[in-house]
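Reply to dn_fold:

You asked what the input looked like. This is it:
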Amino acid sequence: MLTGASSQFAHSSQNAALILLSLFFLPLNTAILLFSYALRLLPTGLINQRSAARPRRRRLRQPKTILVTGVGMTKGLALARIFYEAGHNVIGADFEPSRVPVCGRFSASLKKFYKLTKPNPRTGAAPYVQELLTLINHEHVDLWVSCSGVASAVEDGLAKDIVEKKTECKAIQFNVSTTSTLHEKSSFIEKTISLGLPAPETHTVTSRHAVHQVLHNAEVKQYIMKTVGMDDAARGDMTLLPRPTVSETYQHMSSIKINQDSPWVLQQYIKGEEYCTHALIVRGNVKAFVACPSSELLMHYQALPPQSGLSRAMLEFTIEFARRYGGDMTGHLSFDFLVEERESKKGVEMTLYPIECNPRAHTAVALFNGLSNELADAYLTALEHDTDGAAHANGHVQRQIVVPFQPAAYYWVGHDLVALIIYPLIQLLLGPYYGNTSSQPDTTNILTGIGKFLQHLFFWKDGTYEVWDPLPWWWLYHVYWPGQFLACIIQGKKWSRINVSTTKIFGC
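and this is what came back:
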């Protein structure tokens, strides 16, 4: 993997190679695209196109107009498709970085698409909020479902307050105060502790002296440092502190930029498996929930069985957190958990620790595919409310928490092709001439990677492709990402990783 220390030539070569890879697969993927469209002409009802699905949907009194922002990401696209399959009119909107159209713009689920101005330090959020207001008024939007990226979550909280004040539209988005509190790791942990819920020891530090002071009193504890800001180069650093020796600890700390303007969070290291959740919250009530195993860069999604002890424990935490938080809490709530296992006289005891909160939609929402009517009704409970807490969506009452049972496992074919096959092969063949070769793969590992790729290809579901809506998938790999890689070459931008599902590029 290339780093910030790698040459500009190496980074440009990497981008050029990925563009050539896209061109290599262009004929095959174009054939798949055309074949998917050809299936629409078959009279056998083999695909879940909207007209074919209509007899299986209950009749609605009146479809709603729903705005989904963030349709360039898998989570936004998945929700747009869910509302579309449930019979509603869907308007899509998103930012388009580097002037490259996002894949969701071309989804068959959208009635119309709007390009939005991304908030920036020079203009602030005002142009973005005004565009949302204009869009919502012009399209007579009933419900805005925000699928924020990490960089615009707080701005969406500000927009929610203004939109609901100036229009009749309701928003699935926390207000700016709640979003700001939950968005930052330190304030989230403080809030969790204040609610009487368990949380790992966490410190906000603004100097090396403060770090060393915490570590000096650590006894047997270990910690991980994470930047409070949007420093992509630092996000992947999982170095355990303190290091084996004092000099190693000081040496590591000397390379970190830390001051009042660049604070960090020092959080107790919990040894255990990591999990993530996605929940829909409407007025403090959990309406939909899913949990799945997680990792630092999650690109494979497999839902935990909803009846499992871990899933139930994470659901109970989410319910209790929303209940104790209070207020008109409506939005997406996603937690990252670590599960610590300890041996006791009673056997193995597991303790659940929330380590981070994402007050926005999670890609795990794709696991609700196949539950379009149920999930759409859960969202529409934000529009109407009766005295016993049950909400009505087009005449249908929704009370139970929507959970996916035995959903498909999800992957992204472009990511797996590179991560499981091509990159390990390059490391093996080029050795020390390419990237970080501290852990060179051997032939056995490469064969294992090929086996995993084939398993995903034949038995899992791609997160972007739908047979009735194939163009976003084709566009993602043959226009959007090549356009981004070309922009990186022109701008001289260096990156270490990309997330295909969220379209995020991690700079270095």
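DSSP finds 15 helices and 19 strands in the chain.
Hope that clears it up.
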